[in-house]
Design goal:
The complex is a heterotrimer of chains A (about 575), B (about 450) and C (about 425). Chain A is of the alpha+beta class and about 575 residues long. Chain A contains 17 helices and 25 strands. Chain A folds into three domains: about 120 residues, Lipocalin (Beta Barrel); about 80 residues, Urease, subunit C, domain 1, CATH 2.30.40.10; about 270 residues, Metal-dependent hydrolases (TIM Barrel, Alpha-Beta Barrel), CATH 3.20.20. In chain A, strand 23 and strand 24 form a beta hairpin. In chain B, the strands form two sheets. In chain B, strands 1, 2, 3, 4, 5, 14, 15 and 16 form an eight-stranded mixed beta sheet that branches. Classes of the chains: A alpha+beta (about 575), B alpha/beta (about 450), C alpha/beta (about 425). Chains in contact: A-B, A-C, B-C.
């Protein structure tokens, strides 16, 4: 093993100690931007065709037709693009790194599991999420790439993880991101790990007790302030003090609910204790529509959904095949034997049973998909919370909700105007209007249309540009793909890119190769070509760590493109072309 | 296939849009053999329920407006079965982290979607005592629920106005979980006794501090109340007689111990659960007025039930102890009528004595006997109809009615009666039936089972 | 007990001898000639006969009217009573497990995965407290089975009387196989379906390897007979498998999930194995396939919850009947230890939920006897058969019915157990509260 590291690995090494690099930083050339000739959706139902937006110093300076490009503005080509207000996450952990989870079943070292310290018990309402954020957490870039520009974020944790803040999904540091701090008390039916409170019943009890103790201490403190001489002094307890603004109804409680039962439980607590409740991660909300309406409880629906049924693809296939597949995929577990036995006949009674089970699962899936549509129809205003959805699923899930009856305007409202109002930031966010914070999403087709791409996301007046990625996938199956040869590739690590040369050789049927930079080269492992898909790996050691790289590239004639996964650091884009002979 | 799917989707769509089923119903059951429990067995008799309450028992009664009419000729009608010890319809059973958890309430974790509710209805059960588990010497408060299957609202299951109850536990379970599991008190039956004495004493102190404050409050504006403590509040309520103790117990010595503790603290409302060696101290139980809720024939699964007898219920009954037969199981709850029948094999109880064990007696133990447990005018319309005499092993429950609303009808059973389905659930068979016994659910020994 | 003055007297003697402490010894059985007079005799195989039944030398020597009675015969008046053959439970842990939560009293689950050489009979405790508790209910004969692992060991049929396991042995042994399954072990089984599947495949391979190795082992062993130069290493596992692999000895194949049952049937067919399926909780889902295979089934517990949340509430009760209706040979077991006495109630639930009383009665008498090839000795009341029978005052499926006297191998069994003795002692306790 070489002691010194090859130069082309340098960008990865930069990732090792810290995930940021500050060298050569310089201010942006301008803080004014101009988008023109775009389709500007100011808010759901309010559109300016061939309109423009001027942004300056983080704010929207002007919106309208016939705007002139300010001289100091950088023009973002807006022709045939669509401009929306930046999306808002109603409740999320974006930018809040998840702490390491203890092993399942383990118990933290505590003296008495029945009476653990508050932090072990998950009771930390005094914490502010602003102290726990990381501006460069990957989730920020991920959610921003989808069009989200602001989020109501809360800490990870147990039943009372801390207080939320409204942040913008951009900025160089955590401080810059914060729009409003201490906006909510976040609560969840999330128990301790084998320490009190584990169960929901203990959480409910503890919640009541803390709340009532807080009321008591608050009352006591008030009396004490007025007449302290001769009076026992009130205990200082920052956990209880965190409830004071809630008791004063200056701060709402955001309850994360896992299912409909937890909706009832959270509403029960709110009714009993008298705090302002906001529900988040609601699913099957249509089942409690009347109750939501009568109590006027604000709701954020989950953007998470169960896996989609594969039916959609199959409908295109021939019918017989489709039917068979449906039986198969139903319970791979259950039906394997049938498969093995080939064309074994299924008795009508059994088939009916299977159909029925399948119908119930379908109905259940549909119920989840059409929640948003049903609530919209029922006249309930809602936003979306994103505590549990994977960023990569968000657009697909929105699409499924729209397919299930949610209109695009309703979806847009749930992403922009509704959460802005519900979070109390409608003055500064939620629409494309003069004077608001310049949070915008720019797409090449209407956002919800199939194949639309996000081109720019502007957060706090700073544009983030997104290349439209060429579709990866098998091209002409008959084309002969030549992997053998020399390739110049560029690995794009943020802040620094580097070039190297990959040489693939054919050893009589099997492939091998090297990767080289600055005359330094090393061997590739597991080189294989499947159609036009070239994959190989490489490894390097640095800082006592072994990092494995796995390349996944598509060859298109003399061009090569794809990504490389670098251990736990994530994936980076790779581009290149055949070296000239 | 496609057609079938559609039909079901339609059905579920309709079901989802309907408002929650009306809580009270009217029904007219005709020409049945009516086992009233309190007023004998009446042949060819009608039972009429109007808006959830029994309004008539007799011959050729008039059908109230809008009532469903059920011809039960040749069938047997009895009060809905009551299970004084159950863990169905609960999302959590044990808060096993502390040996005293008097402040937690199973009422907070009712699971109205549990299909075990429907299965219990199909066994003629209309009300259960949804109990905390037996991991702690002083477990959580329990909830008496009616099996109003079909609602999503946990609150709707709660039996409005039923007295508060709390779970206590003696012997092996709390000793294992806390003494052996956590290395904290208590590891012996000596230690368990002290848990009660300490808890009750602390509650007395808490009450005294509250009293002091209440006295001072009027005259002294600077008086400060003791810090609110839900555990102490619950324990104080036990001492005040507002909560009935239901104590998991097996051995004669520990049964006597808790009676002594209760005597010392002036607690009188005491029901023993399982109480396998209750028969050994039946005279003492009778004298104290303590009641017993027992298994029909479970024994020998652990050491403290090795010296047991299936004649327990019979001996207790003959000694004047108010006794019930419970299930403590998602399985046994479905055939409590059969379990009650076993007291005829083991102890030759009369039909009415045997049926009281699953109707009026558990009602008395839960403090709801003025509402349910027998068929009488004015009581709740909680009724079960059997194909044959309910103590016959061949009897099959036909219909179960709660508050006059039919919640189980064998003719309308639709196989899959779950209220909610996970769309990603492949629903394969479970090899062991660990839904069955949940008494120790949530404790460490169960966590590490796999 | 409460019906036999002699026994009560005997108990009193016992009590006295024990210094009036709680009595735990149930007393002695007696053997000899017994004439059960004026009974209704449910023979199972030959209809209902009114008349007498004679027991001599442990066998039934006469049934009906014309019975020659030796002078020494003890006469028991059975007017208004019914005689049934002793019930047979083909799956229990009786004698092997005393107190299930205390591991040192559990002799059913040995370490290891493939252990056909283990003999359940070795560990049957003739003094298990559960034995008298069981037999006074009319269950006279049970299979005591080992558990755990792929091949748990060799199960044995025992009569519930005797001072040694050998005395108790009732003439049937079978290897118990837990057929590989991909099913979840319960709600908290966190293995992924893929992992479970992999595990199943691994186990199945283990099983097939075992079969192949045993065949080779048997071949070498045979060759050794004619060629003394051949040496064969001590291999108890394969040695114990020979008769099973050759299809001479029965295998009890424990299998419950729908898919697993189908895999098991295929495996049984492919390997030409003499097998009985046990468990078969989801047998109703594949009843036709089981019937077509001709493999008999021992199912139970009948009184249990359905295996899936989507199942109709009574699926477990109706399982035995559904299989029987499809043409499967069905016996019923309890799969119990201390409550094997509930066997007639399990049969009764099966009867009520579709099986019918007659078939359910057969399922715990003659059907299991035939499955084990013991139909000439057990399972019905016929002259020449072993005198395993009981007298009762009604339908033994009904809880109200009292089982009044049990005979096992012609022994008149004391009708006491820990349960009845505690009843006798504590019903009217003395001293009472105030002495």
């Amino acid at each position: 093993m070489r002691k010194h590291t090859v130069r082309w690995l340098l960008p990865f090494l930069l990732l090792l100690p810290v995930l940021s690099w500050a060298q050569d930083e310089r201010p942006p050339v301008t803080r004014a931007y101009f988008i023109n000739n775009a389709y500007v959706v100011q808010e759901p139902g309010k559109v300016i065709d061939l309109g423009g937006v001027i942004i300056r110093n983080g704010l929207i300076e002007a919106v309208g037709k016939g705007l002139k490009a300010p001289l100091d503005a950088k023009t973002l080509e807006g022709d045939s693009l669509y401009v929306y207000a930046g999306f808002i996450e109603g409740l999320s952990h974006t930018g809040v790194p998840k702490p390491k989870q203890p092993e399942r079943g383990s118990r933290p070292e505590v003296k008495d599991p029945g009476n653990p310290p508050n932090d072990v018990a998950g009771i930390q309402p005094e914490r502010s999420v602003t102290d726990l954020m990381k501006a460069d957490d990957k989730s920020v870039a991920d959610m921003r790439a989808l069009g989200f520009t602001a989020a109501h974020v809360v800490p990870h944790g147990g039943m009372l993880p801390g207080q939320g803040a409204i942040v913008l999904l951009g900025g160089d540091n955590e401080r810059e991101m914060v729009l409003r701090a201490n906006t909510s008390l976040y609560s969840a039916f999330e128990g301790g790990q084998r320490v009190y409170p584990v169960t929901t019943m203990a959480i409910m009890s503890k919640y009541r007790e803390l709340y009532k103790q807080a009321e008591q201490v608050k009352g006591h403190a008030g009396k004490y302030a007025a007449n302290s001489r001769g009076m026992a002094r009130p205990e200082y307890d920052d956990v209880l003090a965190a409830f004071f603004p809630v008791i004063d109804k200056k701060m709402p409680v955001f309850f994360e609910v896992e299912d409909i039962k937890e909706v009832y439980r959270a509403m029960g607590l709110s009714k009993e204790l008298g705090f302002n409740l906001v529900l988040a991660e609601v699913s099957r909300g249509q089942l409690v529509m009347d109750k939501l309406k009568s109590t006027n409880t604000p709701v954020f629906l989950t953007l998470d959904l169960p896996k989609a049924k594969k039916e959609d693809k199959k409908e295109k296939g021939d019918k017989d095949k489709g039917d068979k597949k449906e039986t198969d995929e139903k319970d791979t577990d259950e039906k394997d034997v049938d498969k093995k036995e080939g064309d074994k006949k299924v008795s009508p009674e059994k088939k009916m049973m299977m159909d029925k089970a399948e119908a119930r699962r379908d109905a259940s899936r549909k119920e989840l998909e059409e929640q948003a549509a049903m609530l919209a129809k029922g006249g309930i205003t809602f936003g979306f919370s994103t505590l549990n959805v994977k960023a990569s699923d968000v657009r697909a899930h929105l699409g499924r909700m729209i397919k299930a009856g949610l209109t695009e305007d309703q979806a847009l409202a749930a992403l922009t105007t509704n959460p802005a109002k519900m979070l109390g930031i409608a003055q500064v966010a939620g629409t494309v209007e003069k004077g608001k914070i310049a949070n915008l999403v720019v797409t090449d087709k209407p956002y919800f249309a199939e194949g639309s791409n996000v081109r720019y996301v502007i957060v706090d007046g700073m544009p983030h540009e997104y290349e439209v990625k060429k579709k990866k996938g098998p091209s002409d199956p008959d084309a002969v793909v030549m992997a053998v040869g020399e390739w110049n590739i560029t690995i794009q690590v943020p802040g620094q890119s580097t070039e190297s040369m990959v040489t693939i050789t054919d050893d009589g049927g099997s492939l091998s190769g090297t990767i080289a930079s600055d005359g330094d080269s090393r061997n590739l492992s597991g080189v294989s070509l499947d159609g036009d898909n070239l994959t190989f790996g490489s490894k390097f050691e640095a800082g006592g760590q072994s990092i494995s790289l796995s390349f996944d590239l598509i060859i298109d004639g003399d061009n090569i493109e794809g990504s490389v996964k670098a251990g736990g650091f994530g994936s980076f884009d790779v581009e290149g072309s055949r070296a000239p002979k | 296939m496609k057609k079938y799917n559609l039909l079901f989707l339609l059905l579920f769509a309709v079901a989802a849009t309907l408002p929650a089923q009306t809580e009270k119903g009217s029904i007219h059951i005709k020409n049945a053999t009516v086992i009233t429990i309190t007023k004998g067995v009446l042949e060819n008799t009608d039972v009429v329920v109007t808006d959830g309450k029994i309004t008539g028992i007799g011959k050729s009664l008039k059908t109230p407006k809008g009532a469903r009419v059920v011809d039960a000729a040749g069938q047997f009608v009895m009060p809905g079965i009551i299970d004084a010890h159950s863990h169905i319809a609960l999302d959590a059973v044990n808060e096993g982290t502390n040996i005293v958890t008097a402040e937690v309430e199973t009422g907070d974790v009712i699971d109205p979607l549990d299909v075990a509710i429907y299965r219990a209805l199909a066994g003629g059960v209309t009300a259960t005592h949804a109990m905390h588990g037996s991991a702690n010497a002083i477990g959580g408060q329990c909830e008496t629920i009616k099996l109003r299957y079909g609602t999503y609202d946990p609150e709707e299951l709660k039996m409005e106005g039923a007295p508060r109850t709390i779970k206590f536990a003696l012997g092996e379970n709390p000793m294992r979980v806390h003494g052996e599991g956590s290395g904290l008190h208590a590891r012996t039956r000596m230690g368990i006794e002290q848990v009660f004495r300490r808890a009750f004493s602390e509650a007395r102190d808490y009450m005294a501090a509250q009293e002091d404050y209440n006295k001072k409050m009027a005259s002294d504006p600077q008086a400060v109340p003791p810090m609110y403590d839900r555990r102490m509040e619950a324990l104080a309520d036990i001492l005040r007689g507002d909560i009935i103790i239901h104590c998991h117990s097996y051995r004669a010595d520990e049964i006597l111990m808790l009676m002594n503790v209760c005597k010392d603290f002036g607690v009188t409302k005491l029901v023993y659960q399982h109480v396998n060696e209750g028969f050994k101290v039946a005279p003492e139980l009778a004298e104290f007025g303590a009641m017993a809720s027992v298994f029909a024939d479970w024994w020998a699964y652990k050491f403290e039930v090795y010296y047991s007898t299936a004649y327990n219920a019979a001996i207790l009954t003959r000694n004047g102890v108010v006794t019930s037969i419970n299930s403590d199981s998602g399985d046994y709850i479905r055939h409590l009528y059969h379990q009650a029948g076993k007291t005829q094999r083991y102890g030759m109880l009369t039909d009415n004595e045997a049926l009281r064990l699953i109707t009026l007696n558990p009602a008395i133990q839960l403090g709801i006997e003025d509402r349910v447990g027998s068929l009488e005018k004015g009581k709740d319309g909680d009724i079960t109809i059997f194909s044959a005499h309910p103590l016959s092993v061949y009897a099959i429950p036909q219909m179960t009615i709660v508050d006059g609303v039919v919640r189980f009808d064998i003719k309308e059973d639709n196989d899959d009666m779950r209220l909610s389905v996970d769309p990603e659930d492949t629903e394969t068979m479970m090899l062991d039936y660990d839904d069955d016994h949940r008494c120790m659910e949530g404790t460490a020994e169960e966590l590490f089972k796999y | 007990m409460r019906f036999n003055k002699n026994i009560i007297l005997y108990c009193l003697v016992c009590l006295f001898m024990a210094g009036q402490l709680s009595a735990q010894v149930v007393g002695k059985a007696t053997k000899g000639a017994f004439l059960l007079k004026n009974a209704t005799i449910e023979t199972i195989t030959k209809g209902t006969v009114k008349g007498d039944l004679l027991i001599e030398d442990g066998k039934i020597t006469g049934i009906g009217g014309a019975v020659t009675v030796p002078a020494s015969a003890k006469v028991i008046d059975c007017s208004g009573k019914t005689i049934y053959p002793g019930f047979i439970d083909m799956g229990t842990s009786l004698g092997l497990v005393e107190v299930s939560s205390i591991s040192v009293t559990n002799d059913n689950n040995e370490i290891g995965d493939i252990k056909p050489y283990l003999e359940a009979l070795t560990a049957v405790n003739p003094s298990s407290v559960a034995i008298p508790v069981t037999r006074v209910s009319g269950v006279t004969t049970v299979i005591a089975q080992p558990s755990g692992g792929l091949i748990a060991g060799t199960a044995s049929l025992i009569n519930l009387i005797g001072y040694s396991p050998d005395e108790m042995y009732a003439g049937f042994k079978a290897i118990r196989l837990n057929f590989p399954s991909s099913g979840a072990r319960g709600r908290r089984d966190r293995r992924s379906p893929e992992d479970r599947k992999k595990n199943e495949a691994k186990k199945l391979k283990q099983l097939n390897d075992l079969w192949e190795e045993t065949k080779l082992f048997a071949k070498i062993k045979e060759a050794k007979g004619s060629d003394a130069s051949i040496r064969q290493e001590y291999n108890p596992t394969l040695d114990a498998m020979i008769s099973t692999v050759k299809g001479e000895q029965m295998v009890l194949v424990e299998v419950n999930a729908e898919n697993d049952i189908l895999s098991a049937l295929k495996w049984i067919k492919d390997n030409e194995i003499k097998a009985i399926l046990t468990g078969c909780a989801e047998g109703w889902r594949v009843a036709d396939e089981i019937a077509a295979s001709g493999v008999p089934v021992v199912t139970g517990p009948v009184i249990s919850i359905p295996t899936r949340g989507s199942d109709r509430y009574d699926r477990a009760y109706a399982n035995a009947g559904a299989m029987k209706k499809a043409g499967v040979t069905v016996a019923i077991r309890t799969d119990q230890t201390e409550n094997v006495r509930d066997l007639p109630f399990h049969a009764a639930f099966a009867a009520a939920y579709g099986m019918g009383r007659e078939a359910a009665l057969e399922a715990i008498t003659i059907v299991p006897a035939r499955m084990m090839g013991l139909e000439m000795e057990l399972g019905s009341l016929e002259v020449g058969k072993i005198a395993n029978l009981f007298i009762c005052d009604g339908d033994p499926f009904e809880t109200k019915t009292q089982i009044e006297q049990v005979f096992i191998q012609g022994w008149e069994i004391p009708m006491d157990s820990r349960h009845s003795l505690l009843y006798d002692e504590f019903l009217d306790r003395s001293p009472g509260v105030k002495n």
